[in-house]
UniProtKB/TrEMBL annotation:
Protein's UniProt keywords contain Membrane: no
Domain (Response regulatory) ranges: 9-124
InterPro entries, alphabetized: CheY-like_superfamily (IPR011006), NreC/VraR/RcsB-like_REC (IPR058245), Sig_transdc_resp-reg_C-effctor (IPR016032), Sig_transdc_resp-reg_receiver (IPR001789), Tscrpt_reg_LuxR_C (IPR000792), WalR-like (IPR039420)
Pfam families in the cross-refs: GerE, Response_reg
Residues that span the membrane, as ranges: none
PTM-bearing positions, type 4-aspartylphosphate: D59
Segments forming domain HTH luxR-type: 156-221
Name under which the protein is recorded: Response regulator
Alphabetically ordered keywords of this record: DNA-binding, Phosphoprotein
Length: 225
C-alpha cells in the first residue's frame, strides 16, 4: 500500500447502515482514511463541508436530498472534490444525471470489494471510473451533445485559451480514455508531469474535473485526432 493511498480522505454516504458500514470498513482496511459517513442527503452535505474529503463515495437514492443534488452542492463548494457514485441503478438516465451533476465515476453495487477499492484509488487520482459498459454510454452522450448546434459566437466572448503543444497532446490522450500512467508511458514523461499538464489545462479552460475535460476534447474532435 502506498503512502499516497494511506492519506486519501474518503467519506461514504448511503442510507443503508449495514451497507454503509461495510463499505467504510473495507476502505479503512485497505488503508484509506475514512473521515466520515452519512445516511441522508442533508447530513452528507453538512459533514462533507466540515471534514473536506478528497473522495465522496455516494449513493444516489438518499432521504432528505437526492444524491445528485448532494453531488452538485458539494462539487460547487469544492471543485477539487472527486465523487464516485456507488448505486444499485444502472439506468442510463441515472448515470448521465450523476455525471452532469459533477460525479467523476459511477460504479454499480454489484462490484466486489477489490473493484471498489481500485475505483476509489483511481477516482482520487483523477481518472474517470465507470462500471464496464457505462463509460461508452457517457462518451456517447458527450458526442451527441457535441454534435448539436454550436452557440452563436459573441463578439464580447474572450478568445479561447491557448494550450501548449504538450498540453494539447496530453488532452488528446485523455480524450481517448488513457489513464495518467498510460499517458506517461506513451509520452515518456513522469506521472507527476502528466498530472501537472492536466491541472494547468483545467485551469486555463476553467474546467473542474477530468470528465469535463474529456467532454471539452470530444467537442473539438481531439479524440479522433
Amino acid at each position: 500500500m502506498s503512502d499516497a493511498q494511506r492519506t486519501i480522505r474518503v467519506m461514504v454516504v448511503d442510507d443503508h447502515p449495514m451497507w454503509r458500514d461495510a463499505v467504510a470498513r473495507d476502505l479503512a482496511a485497505a488503508g484509506f482514511d475514512v473521515v466520515a459517513t452519512a445516511g441522508d442527503g442533508p447530513q452528507a452535505v453538512r459533514r462533507a463541508l466540515a471534514v473536506s474529503p478528497q473522495v465522496l463515495v455516494l449513493d444516489l437514492n438518499l432521504p432528505g436530498l437526492p444524491g445528485v443534488q448532494v453531488c452538485k452542492e458539494l462539487v460547487g463548494a469544492d471543485p477539487a472534490l472527486r465523487v464516485l457514485v456507488l448505486s444499485a441503478s444502472g439506468e442510463h438516465a441515472d448515470v448521465l444525471e450523476a455525471v452532469k451533476s459533477g460525479a467523476t465515476g459511477y460504479l454499480l453495487k454489484s462490484a466486489g470489494p477489490e473493484e471498489l477499492i481500485d475505483a476509489v484509488r483511481r477516482t482520487a487520482a483523477g481518472d474517470p471510473v465507470f462500471t464496464p459498459g457505462l463509460a461508452g454510454l457517457v462518451l456517447g452522450e458527450y458526442r451527441r451533445l457535441a454534435s448539436g448546434p454550436a452557440p452563436a459566437a459573441s463578439s464580447n466572448e474572450p478568445k479561447a485559451p491557448q494550450l501548449t503543444d504538450r498540453e494539447t497532446e496530453v488532452l488528446r490522450l485523455v480524450a481517448k480514455g488513457l489513464s495518467y500512467k498510460q499517458i506517461a508511458e506513451r509520452l515518456v514523461i513522469s506521472h507527476r508531469t502528466v498530472q501537472n499538464h492536466v491541472q494547468n489545462t483545467l485551469g486555463k479552460l476553467q474546467l473542474h474535473n477530468r470528465v469535463e475535460l474529456v467532454r471539452y476534447a470530444i467537442e473539438r474532435g481531439l479524440d479522433d485526432a
